[in-house]
Inverse folding.
């Protein structure tokens, strides 16, 4: 495998993407919540605007509880694939543990054909675990469901005819899983929490890692990435063949103070609903530090932060979450504009290989 | 302000007796505050399985949500086998990692022996600080001889409980004020 198999061309510099969890929350500045229909349509519109701004990819996540709209995230991704032409279409993430890998592959291979080869999968195991009960799985199988189903997904990706046997699904006998993606295989990444123990598992499976980062110094988030690359090396892989992506909060405004002021209520109130407790104001204030991974601030400060993170991580892709907690669409448009006009050109200029 | 008085054992009477006194003292002296006694003997709790504290059902959900909505938690614990009881540890396991952030926690220990005096210091405080509680440094330690037929009979023990409550209220008031002032400085 190599970067090309994951459709990454690092000579062009750091890839910049957007991701949404598809959360459906009130705007804390007004107390109003748009309809699920409007939220879904705005997510699709966000993808077309992102494409026009030159953003490299967009991804949609799967959550099954209250306050979310993208339970059927692959359907949303299909709509995005149809509405766009160039932007990569991915998941953030697909909960493989509670899905049938055959169906997931069928869905994403179909999106890949619809989108002319732009689909990929980021497979995770969910941080909120309510879906295990909803979808009929036992939380006690949390670890093993993830490993077994992830392995099956990889096998289906690599082999057109699959013979497989495991604990959580009926065996597959000479099963032909169709359709096949445009170029034979899909890029499949593994979603990783913030710990080295989580990251090394991506290395064991020989897949690229996607690291979620809420807040904290970049040096802390470097540890899992280092552990991942060291483990790849010890297993005989070349770490240079495996891209690394990071994901985190993003919000740009004219000044850092304005960005903090506008975005904090969305994060704090949104997390109260989705996680049961808010985001500490002190930590959010520290997020403005140039060495913190939270990319909230003025465009210039965000550029410096992303470049610092790139220097620290040497990663190939960064994806930004800017719509959490009922951020109104005019602010999302403004953010995309700031990315397209100011942030992206600078990030590409300084990270592209000459 | 929401104050929860937690009696951490499902068996025995000393901790319950002490925490019942704690509740009545708060009710009498701080009539504006909302105080709830959670006696684990009255609840049928499941063991923690790592889910979001709001996704438990029945008694477990009542306990987790009451604690998470509290500004102050007064933890009462007996000492079993030189440690806190499993029932109390399970309550902490049911809550999020940083579930006690911005909450003030006071401690009252009842024990069969004075040899257990430092157990709260070495075993309970690390849990509370890991979970980010603001801990009232001094705790109340009571022994078998302080009780007779489910009443507290040692006046000194009553004085110590009253000081614990006062210390707890002083800490929560100063902490909340100081924190609000600090947060106002952030300007967002």
């Amino acid at each position: 495998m190599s970067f090309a198999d994951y459709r990454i061309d690092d000579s062009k510099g750091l890839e910049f993407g957007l991701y949404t969890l598809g959360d459906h929350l009130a705007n804390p500045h007004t107390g109003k919540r748009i309809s699920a229909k409007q939220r879904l349509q705005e997510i699709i519109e966000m993808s077309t605007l992102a494409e026009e701004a030159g953003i490299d990819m967009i991804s949609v996540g799967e959550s099954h509880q209250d306050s979310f709209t993208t339970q059927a995230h692959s359907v949303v991704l299909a709509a995005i694939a149809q509405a766009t032409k160039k932007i990569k279409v991915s998941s953030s993430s697909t909960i493989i543990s509670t899905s049938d890998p055959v169906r997931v592959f069928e869905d994403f291979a179909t999106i890949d054909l619809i989108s002319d080869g732009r689909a990929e999968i980021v497979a995770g195991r969910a941080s909120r675990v309510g879906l295990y009960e909803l979808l009929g799985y036992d939380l006690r199988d949390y670890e093993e469901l993830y490993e077994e189903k992830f392995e099956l997904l990889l096998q289906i990706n690599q082999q057109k005819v699959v013979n497989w046997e495991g604990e959580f699904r009926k065996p597959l006998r000479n099963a032909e899983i169709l359709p096949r993606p445009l170029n034979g295989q899909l890029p499949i990444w593994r979603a990783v929490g913030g710990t080295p123990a989580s990251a090394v598992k991506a290395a064991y499976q020989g897949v690229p890692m996607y690291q979620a980062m809420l807040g904290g110094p970049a040096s802390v988030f470097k540890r899992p990435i280092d552990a991942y690359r060291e483990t790849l090396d010890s297993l005989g892989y070349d770490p240079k063949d495996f891209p690394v992506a990071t994901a985190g909060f993003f919000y740009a405004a004219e000044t850092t103070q304005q960005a903090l002021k506008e975005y904090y209520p969305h994060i704090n109130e949104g997390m109260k609903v989705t996680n049961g407790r808010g985001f500490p104001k002190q930590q959010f204030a520290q997020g403005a530090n140039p060495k913190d991974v939270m990319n909230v601030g003025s465009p210039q400060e965000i550029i410096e932060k992303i470049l610092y993170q790139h220097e620290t991580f040497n990663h190939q892709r960064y994806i930004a979450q800017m719509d959490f907690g009922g951020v109104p669409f005019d602010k999302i448009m403004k953010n995309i504009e700031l990315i397209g006009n100011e942030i992206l050109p600078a990030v590409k200029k300084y990270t592209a290989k000459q | 302000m929401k104050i929860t008085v937690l009696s951490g054992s499902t068996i025995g009477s000393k901790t319950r007796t002490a925490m019942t006194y704690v509740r009545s003292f708060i009710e009498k002296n701080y009539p504006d505050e909302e105080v709830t006694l959670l006696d684990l003997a009255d609840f049928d709790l499941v063991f923690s399985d790592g889910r979001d504290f709001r996704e438990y059902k029945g008694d477990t959900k009542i306990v987790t949500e009451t604690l998470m909505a509290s500004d102050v938690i007064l933890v009462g614990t007996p000492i079993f086998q030189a440690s806190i009881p499993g029932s109390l540890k399970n309550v902490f396991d049911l809550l999020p990692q940083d579930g006690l952030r911005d909450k003030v926690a006071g401690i009252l220990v009842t024990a069969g022996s004075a040899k257990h005096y430092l157990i709260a210091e070495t075993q309970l405080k690390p849990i509370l600080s890991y979970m980010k509680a603001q801990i009232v440094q001094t705790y109340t330690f009571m022994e078998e001889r302080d009780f007779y037929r489910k009443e507290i009979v040692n006046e000194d023990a009553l004085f110590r409980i009253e000081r614990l409550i006062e210390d707890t209220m002083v800490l929560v008031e100063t902490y909340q004020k100081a924190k609000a002032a600090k947060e106002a400085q952030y300007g967002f």
